[in-house]
Amino acid sequence: MIDDHRPGAPSLSGKAGGSLLAWFDREKRDLPWRRTHDPYAIWVSEIMLQQTQVATVIPYWGRWIERFPTVEALASANEQDVLLLWQGLGYYRRCRMLLQGARWVVANGIPRTVSAWQQVPGVGRYTSAAIASIAFDEPAPLVDGNVERVYARLTGDDSASRDLHEAAWRWAAQNIFIKRPGDWNQALMELGATVCRPVAPECKRCPLSKQCVAFQSWRVDELPTKPIKVKTVQLRHVVWVPLFAERFGVRQVPAGQWWEGMWEFPRADADGTLEVAALREAVGEGWPQSVGGIRHSVTHHRIGIDVSYVRCDAPSVGLRWVTRDELASLPMPAPQRKILKLVLNQLGL
Is 46 an active-site residue? Predict the structure, then answer.
């Protein structure tokens, strides 16, 4: 096994690496995208898994592959249909970039190497290495949050943030099994996800515990060093749900805003005083009836949303007026779906 290991790896010997691969072969989770070497299917899974838990992604991935089974099928799709299928996963820029990337691949051909994958819109350092190693067996290192944590504990590296991330990439490049690079990368990620967890790691189950500096020095809970916490930003929005003749008024979120390209009820920021004038201009005549509020989080932003509905005397020309059934076919952000449910419950519909 040691002959299969790239030289210059200070932390994992051939024997330890073999133990990790044997553990992975025995303990790995049966995830649907692990049953294929189709680079497109793997690509979709890697994009969906960014900042999203595996359990959440599994049903979305299945529906996606059923609806868009090939990169050609995705490339020819309408953006609104793509956003609708992605609805609920959040971080919608990932979805738009996946669509843009699919169109690039159809025009230029499927890449096979890390460097070629990095030419695809929306595909960066990690994703290119994941696809190239898993689908094409390129011995390319990769680092995600799980690998970074395994590295910090295994080596005892107490650096943080960008320094830790770059050190983990250097370590990963020194620790790659040439003959099974895809399995090796997945083994490191699997170890971090299921054993070397951020909280309550199961060190006694770890195949690398004998080599782990943090475990041997009783520092597991100290590593990796926590970065400086990003300050939470509190925001307040006001949303009016317009109704006219059993239709709802919605508008498309403009470019450059959260949820770009999706559909929402008229919304305004509230900073000290309510932006009633902006809402009134969007909705038209009618009197707002408060139905309460909801809370929603986007990265480190905490958004409180005050919700009202407005029975309009006439349909505003600035809105698209749709039935309740038509709303179901429009891609809407998660908070807007919550707002709709709140209003429907208030109206007894």
Answer: yes
